[in-house]
């Protein structure tokens, strides 16, 4: 049975589909399994062959077999890639297979609708301004497919113009709904994805932080309410490690239970004293931990203030999260230490690292007072020939002994581990803290950017009356790393830029391009703050500025007025509503001449052509021939003859001159009465 002529898919629609199919799937490449990628590539190449006339459409049984095999394969690997990624791959395969199987316009409409859905899915994780612009362009091209179904005779340019016009018409309504619709919690939870995001881990060993120093990914941004602290004060606490097995530091199970319970009763009490307030916008990490300077406290309802001084998000950070923090620099964390916590932070493996133990006991013997002992340990790192490097030599089973007495070169985790081990050996409770140190100041927008390569580890030692006190051996080995930042000590080309050839951070060495980079980053920051971070509080603030006291009546009237305005604009643009337009100046000039001649006794009937009217005027006023003849020639040329842009401009200039001369000639006529 042949298709009706009206249901045949035009070549222009097929061309638009070739383009949009690729653009829809490209942003989702990191979600696809190798099997899905292979099938999508086959479908795209097959459709390209169909478009060029080289191959025929695949038989239905082949498409069905591929669909069944794809579904079985996804069912087998979903436990590995996560439920969300499994469902996304299923939809992608359906999109690709339907693409090569489509036979009429109904199939094209189905493909286009699934395309819109895949574009929306991309927004689950990719919400930056640049991805939004890219996906808006893809949605516009997807709309052009629909336009081409019904206007196949139009040129590609006309189709693109109409598709763009339709998208632009939808923007005011989208903006209005974005501002006025209430921010409601989701009606369902998005299934989890098993892919990890670059960032800190809840356990650390030699070399772990080193891996992060090769990443240029943004970790979070900070905006301070007051003056920004200096770089040496920018210690961003994220995780606290209290268990040590001789090779690896991990979180204790007791704090993990508090995290899992997510009980507000476990919140620390708000500290007292002077504080520094700031706002943090963290990037998606797929973890719960948040960042703050000591001693950090947040009053946000969905953030816990854990007993170990950390901030913890009740829900996993799967998208950009904005929260406010106050840091109490002079506050004391754990003025008194519980016996079980003290025992935990004194625990060491029974054997191992004998040289390090002996060195620690020598410090205890020489410096019985705890603070003096810790100061001596810090001075030891400063005065001994130790080196700070991102590529330390390998260590054997006795890690700390090899590091302290053989290699004498390491990164922050090496020095922090050795310092905490020696403190515990001498009877001082100590633990490892990981987070970030420093930041890049953007003066254009007034915020601080903290990147993954700024990851850092330091030590906290508990002292009577002082509580947990920070000690950072890195400041003794490489003081410029702490005082001036990561880039002041390490060469970016040999660290975080080594595996990022296309990172925009490479532009720092070019002042003009770096200013452009910071300006673009500022735009992205404002996008994160005012669009992705647009919550009920900001919504209320904007509505209050627009309406004053927000009442139900005011809000209803505001919504009706905006919707009516948008409706009228759309109706006018599609031709359902017409307004009187300004009259053509050429026609207006001719009508003015007709009115002037009518006052002289020669009226023009509505059905009389300009040429006939001109002849009749000359019968009564032969003296106007020299003036009216060039005017009428110009008028007829402009109205009825095809002209180039340059030709029309030239004739229009001549028309204005002859119009002016004709007016003067008519005004000089003596009024003559014409017999009927």
UniProtKB/TrEMBL annotation:
Signal peptide: none annotated. SMART domains: TGc. Keywords: Membrane, Transmembrane, Transmembrane helix. Residues 404-475 form the Transglutaminase-like domain. The keyword Transmembrane helix applies. The chain crosses the membrane at residues 12-29, 35-53, 60-77, 83-100, 107-124, 130-150, 162-181, 555-577. It comes from the Bacteria. It holds the Pfam family TgpA_N. The keyword Lipoprotein does not apply. InterPro entries: Bact_TGase-like (IPR052901), Papain-like_cys_pep_sf (IPR038765), TgpA_N (IPR021878), Transglutaminase-like (IPR002931). Coiled coil: none annotated. This is Transglutaminase. The lineage of its organism: Bacteria, Pseudomonadati, Pseudomonadota, Gammaproteobacteria, Alteromonadales.
